[in-house]
Amino acid sequence: xxxxxxxxxxxxxxxxxxxxxxxxxxxxxxxxxxxxxxxxxxxxxxxxxxxxxxxxxxxxxxxxxxxxxxxxxxxxxxxxxxxxxxxxxxxxxxxxxxxxxxxxxxxxxxxxxxxxxxxxxxxxxxxxxxxxxxxxxxxxxxxxxxxxxxxxxxxxxxxxxxxxxxxxxxxxxxxxxxxxxxxxxxxxxxxxxxxxxxxxxxxxxxxxxxxxxxxxxxxxxxxxxxxxxxxxxxxxxxxxxxxxxxxxxxxxxxxxxxxxxxxxxxxxxxxxxxxxxxxxxxxxxxxxxxxxxxxxxxxxxxxxxxxxxxxxxxxxxxxxxxxxxxxxxxxxxxxxxxxxxxxxxxxxxxxxxxxxxxxxxxxxxxxxxxxxxxxxxxxxxxxxxxxxxxxxxxxxxxxxxxxxxxxxxxxxxxxxxx
Length: 418
Prior knowledge:
By secondary structure, the chain is α/β, with parallel strands linked by helices.
């Protein structure tokens, strides 16, 4: 239906848009290569009625998503749109459901979707084709948000909330990419998203800190908490040849992304030594769910005193976020390898752990509860904390003796072959 509402003057507007934009509709769908990686590309043309979606636009995008599934290619959507086309009314609006269904089928086939939010990206297209992509890139300075400029209250017209930079700061955009390096970044991301080996676990990283055994449980806890101990960033830099980050919230205690090691892609979720927030657990859940769909093995690095326990964390659903991560790890069909590199604090640490492949570095520890908190529960004084730490058996050697971990990492990485 080119003109479902019989909108006065609309056929002429369509004809003028085709002449000005040089395209038949507000999108151009084609196959293209980024380096060696081929993809189905959906490119919006803002010069065609503001890149708005009508029934014809929806048909083209639906066909492109179908084609991607048939030829088993990833999808790259280059957005620049004000939303759905009011001249076509509700039939145009329903195209958003068509996009959602097409993307759901794409996910079922294990094919990735990368979106790029260009200037501007607003309305239902952002909420259906953009924001839920596997990887979301955005051009700095672009207007990005559900509410477009002309439908916002005037006082919010220039509010920074509706910018690519804000979407990045709040964790809804994974990477800000300038136009001059966009193709290069798409090549990198396509390589990472399609380079997995489902049945081969991630190699175990080598230990970067102290290799000697802790004297006792309290010494193990103190050493794991040391500011001088290598943290997640050092381990990731040592382990991967290249890597790219999937964003979460600010300071949520987890680094997530996909890296390349010896020519294959491995997803990672790494705690940073701070209390993990609900947002951090949800980012890890997103990462592991994505890895499972795309057949990427997962590496988790555990290092946290525990889950954030402040009122803000409780209001944000700490228990729900941890439960979601436990469930995602349990259901994952790809192998997950866990290395505890610092303090393993109770359930907030265990949530990131593999169900069947857990190792500790010699300078790490793992405990059901921090010894100070245990002392508080038992009404013991500060002087009794060191002895209590020993009773909790947090050392790698203790845990190995209890048969609850697989081993202690050494100075060389370990390759798991099945």
